[in-house]
Amino acid sequence: MATVALLGAGFIGNLHAANLAVHPHAELSWVFDPQSELAKLTARKYHGIAASSARQVFADPSVDAVIIASTTDSHAELLDLALEHQKPVLVEMPLTTSALSGNDYVKRFTDAHLLAMPDLCRRFAPNYIQLRTCICDDSLGDIELLQISSRGISLSPFENYGHRQARLRERLFHFFDLATWLLNSLPVDIYAASSRLENAPNSPINTCVATLRFANGALCQLDASMRDGLSYDERVSARGAFAAAETQRGSSVALRLHQTQRSVKRYVDADWHERITPIFASSLEGFLSALESEETPPATLQDAIVAQVITQAFAQSLTEERPVPFNWNNPLGLSVIKPDFLDARHTA
């Protein structure tokens, strides 16, 4: 039985706590959040113990692993504590506030031979796994176009500007990772554009599009909006040389495959919370399996850095209003890149 502590008692932290509470081979121990009442509520609900500090959590020798589900600006301090106390971690994304600082942790965790898995949760969604299988087994032929659409509820006007922008970037981060994972390739360049569809002065970006060209010849078109007053939604479609496949609205387990004179649909409707809870459970299972087997986890810190580099290039393209090319030997000023940075999962 693995004893797992939780740092961060917000929405995602509570998803992890709920999954730990029903896991047959893991149990929740400490819960820490700077807002102590949140930590107490989560601990009480899921049979954990509220901690007074993150250091108290990491210093406990009975803790086998730690889930970091706190705000991104707190990750560096918590990753330092994990290294200091040799605790394996499952960490929410982005890894840190920049690709440069994040890449430093790739090296430090690698040198320490310590498990650190980024929670790239969309890799664990059944419909995306099916879609990737269709792409990788050549069911669709050479992929010509990958389209990703994301819709989210409007950003709260009560959040500060920086927080609202960060939420949009963090959402894009996951879709950039999804694109590289689905296509099994790295982008050559990216061009981005955005709109501010609010009348208030200095309102944040809430709608954007990005076009990426990949090394394997595929194009990816991503559009995202946080102006939807109805619900959260995301759809992904891949069009190949002789077939196409698309995930379906409102489900994490639905995929429609289009072939010549034939269309196959698997669909199970579910609301957003019902869709995302089992995805996080699968991600947790992948982490716990890697913890037990001491093998490479299904998502690595290098995967997270790739997505963060793309996200930073997206921001650069918006600012400079031009396409931004990638140099994966030294992407966007990163000075330390491991020789195996372009591993098999990211080779065109």
UniProtKB/TrEMBL annotation:
Residues 1-17 form the signal peptide. One of its GO terms (molecular function) is nucleotide binding. Residues 4-114 form the Gfo/Idh/MocA-like oxidoreductase N-terminal domain. Residues 172-325 form the Gfo/Idh/MocA-like oxidoreductase C-terminal domain. Keywords: Signal. It comes from the Bacteria. It holds the Pfam family GFO_IDH_MocA_C. Belongs to the Gfo/Idh/MocA family. This is Oxidoreductase, NAD-binding domain protein. It comes from Actinomyces graevenitzii F0530.
